[in-house]
Design goal:
Chain B: Its main location: membrane. Chain B: It is found in: Cell inner membrane; Cell membrane. Chain B: This is Alanine:cation symporter family protein. The complex is a heterodimer of chains A (about 140) and B (about 500). Helices cover about 50% and strands about 20% of the residues of chain A. A 5-stranded parallel β-sheet of chain A has the order 3-2-1-4-5, sandwiched between helices. In chain B, the strands form 2 sheets. A two-stranded antiparallel sheet of chain B has the order 1-2. A two-stranded antiparallel ribbon of chain B has the order 3-4. The longest helix of chain B has about 40 residues. The relative contact order of chain B is 0.20. Classes of the chains: A alpha/beta (about 140), B mainly alpha (about 500).
């Protein structure tokens, strides 16, 4: 682990904004590089109509463009304002699994993620990305409340 | 708005009153045409006492040829197909594109339909137990035809300016023949195919489905829906309208999600029935094998059983008709041949698994009680076989049939649309016109008697396998070269599994 890399997972929520602010302070102090990741929830095992399949490619492109414009872009400029070296990744997939794969690819030293603060029942049914990461990530996970 | 709806309902009610008259005039007009088209397409030759339609022979020879030419890809590619569907070779950087699994699932819900429940019963009624054996053989050979079709579908698809894709036989026929220095012929074949798939989409992909769904509902309702075909038709057309024009994706999404579960539900209970008939199972299986080679009690003997089996298999899995390659073409892959591998599984699931299970349900019931279904055939016969053990089953079965019909209509609306846009361009206005026509035919399917209209559509769907398979022969060397190159890349490790 030659580089000091922080993987920041964001999703456009207010929790993600707090995680972003926290990551900027940490990175400024420790001189870390920040990789900002946005995962678009998607499963290769869903059932689609033929029309959805035919339009999938253009829809994917627009999803990625939208993620860059509205979520990744502002986060990156906020970080570079603080003089931090940044990189970004937008990828489709299961959020937890994808973030773990990205953490490995970028040799991140830790993952920072905001908390949604869902109620018990909701997270019981849908699970929470932060909770799942804590259980399965190969590197330390910092959950920002 | 309300007034319009009331007026519409009144018109339809009136139409159903006048239906007898309309039916007769439609019949009088279309019957001779249907008869003519039917005789030409299903032109039969007499072989050793059996009537062999040439078009079936054409499909069988094609399937045998592709199986041999591709080196038994249906057997040897099976394991690799599973690995591809499982996502072993999926590049995480292209996640978010249509996966192999999704393309297969979409194509399968287009082919799994009433045929899997009712078509098999028809095969067994006419062709005896032995027809089942040939049905399975046809499914096995059809896997190779699908492999060739779907590889070409991906290789020669067209990317539209808006980023969506259009593919299928009309595109590979046109571009493939163009590459081989026959642009005029390619254009003719492409247009011919597009017209055929468009009309087929209104017939077997639409009216036949909505009609069968209505008949099933009415049977379960004990005839309470007699004379209300217009109402059922209107509701069905409304739901289809909401999906394909209103863009209400949620309905389509629900159907696409429910259909696989219905298929599993159906197979699950079918296996239970087979187990309940367990003592009859050895006899039923032995009937299938002996019937296949002796053809006892079947017109035309073993050959008669073979013909029926093959015909029904094609009806069910559509191998050689080319329709599925339209759905498979949506996959985005650097190697078109990977989609060919995946499509192998389609006739396997449709014909070798689901049809065989239905055949065993019927076969074991017949051994236990030769007259279990009375005069019933088609879906009603299958339903009766289930009813012997589970009196409640016809209701969920009718529901399953309705959903199968609906998902088949959604898939075929897309196939027909691609034929239409091939002919008239990708303009939004034209697409809407097509979709309105499609919905009108959904309602019509429940109102008019199908006989001759269906015969025409049936014949046309079989007719488009003539240009399709002819094209496949010409383009098969390209597919084989792609396959060899791909295999070499697998061996050298240039293409390998991800994690």
């Amino acid at each position: 682990m030659s580089e000091n890399v922080i993987l920041l997972a964001i999703d456009g929520s207010t929790g993600a904004e707090r995680a972003l602010a926290h990551t900027r302070r940490r990175a400024e102090l420790g001189g870390a590089k920040v990789v900002v990741a946005y995962v678009i929830e998607w499963s290769p095992y869903s059932f689609n109509t033929p029309e959805e399949n035919a339009e999938r490619h253009s829809r994917r492109e627009s999803e990625i463009a939208k993620a860059h414009d509205s979520v990744i872009g502002p986060a990156l400029s906020y970080l570079t304002d603080g003089g931090i070296v940044v990189d970004s990744i937008v990828r489709h997939g299961n959020p937890t699994e994808t973030l773990i794969a990205v953490a490995k690819e970028t040799s991140a030293a830790q993952i920072v993620i905001g908390r949604r603060g869902q109620s018990g029942l909701k997270s019981l049914i849908f699970g929470s990305v932060a909770g799942n990461l804590i259980q399965t990530a190969p590197v330390p996970v910092m959950v920002v409340p | 708005m309300n007034r319009i709806i009331i007026a519409l309902l009144a018109t339809l009610a009136f139409a159903s009153q006048a239906q007898a008259g309309i039916d007769e005039s439609i019949n009088a007009f279309t019957a001779p045409i249907a008869q003519f088209v039917g005789t030409v397409v299903f032109f039969k030759i007499s072989v050793a006492g059996a009537q062999l339609p040439l078009v079936v022979l054409w499909l069988v020879i094609g399937a045998v040829f592709f199986t041999i030419y591709m080196g038994f890809i249906n057997l040897r590619g099976f394991k690799h197909a599973i690995e591809l569907v499982r996502g072993d070779y999926a590049d995480p950087n292209s996640s978010g594109e249509v996966s192999h699994f999704q393309a297969l699932a979409t194509a399968v819900s287009g082919t799994v339909g009433i045929g899997n429940i009712g078509g098999v019963a028809i095969a067994v009624t006419i062709g005896g137990a032995g027809a089942t054996f040939w049905l399975i053989v046809a499914g096995f050979l059809g896997m190779s035809t699908k492999f060739v079709e779907c590889t070409l579908g991906v290789k020669y698809r067209t990317e539209n300016p808006d980023g969506s894709v259009s593919g299928g036989p009309m595109y590979y026929l046109r571009k493939g023949f163009e590459e081989r220095g026959m642009p005029g012929f390619g254009k003719f074949m492409g247009t011919f195919y597009a017209v055929g798939i468009f009309i087929g989409a209104l017939g077997i992909g639409n009216m036949f489905q909505s009609n069968q769904a209505y008949v099933q509902l009415n049977t379960v309702a004990g005839g309470a829906l007699d004379g209300y075909g217009w109402l059922v038709g209107l509701i069905l057309a409304g739901v289809v309208f909401a999906v394909i024009i209103g863009g209400i994706k949620s309905i389509a999404r629900v159907t696409e999600k429910v259909v696989p579960f219905m298929a599993i539900f159906y197979c699950f209970f079918a296996i239970i029935v087979i187990l309940l008939n367990f003592s009859s199972l050895p006899m039923a299986i032995s009937n299938i094998f002996t019937g296949a080679f002796t053809g006892e009690g079947v017109a035309g003997g073993a050959l008669g059983a073979l013909i029926i089996g093959f015909q029904r298999a094609v009806f069910s899995n559509e191998a050689g008709i080319g329709s599925a390659s339209i759905a498979h073409a949506a996959v985005r892959t650097k190697e078109p041949v990977t989609e060919g591998y995946v499509s192998l599984l389609e006739p396997f699931i449709d014909t070798i698994v689901i049809c065989t299970i239905t055949a065993l349900v019927i076969g074991t019931s017949q051994v236990a009680d030769p007259n279990f279904a009375g005069d019933a055939t088609g879906v009603a016969m299958t339903s009766a076989a289930f009813e012997r053990h589970m009196s409640w089953f016809p209701v969920p079965l009718a529901f399953a049939a309705l959903l199968f019909a609906f998902s088949t209509m959604i898939s075929w609306s897309y196939y027909g649309l691609k034929g239409w846009t091939y002919l008239f361009g990708e303009g939004q206005m034209g697409q809407t016109v097509y979709k309105v026509i499609f919905c009108a035919f959904v309602a019509l399917g429940c109102i008019v008697k199908l006989g001759p209209i269906l015969d025409i559509s049936d014949a046309l769907v079989f007719l488009i396998c003539v240009p399709n398979i002819l094209g496949l022969y010409f383009l098969a060397p390209i597919v084989r070269a792609e396959m060899e190159a791909y295999k070499a890349k697998l061996e050298t490790g240039e293409i390998r599994k991800f994690a």
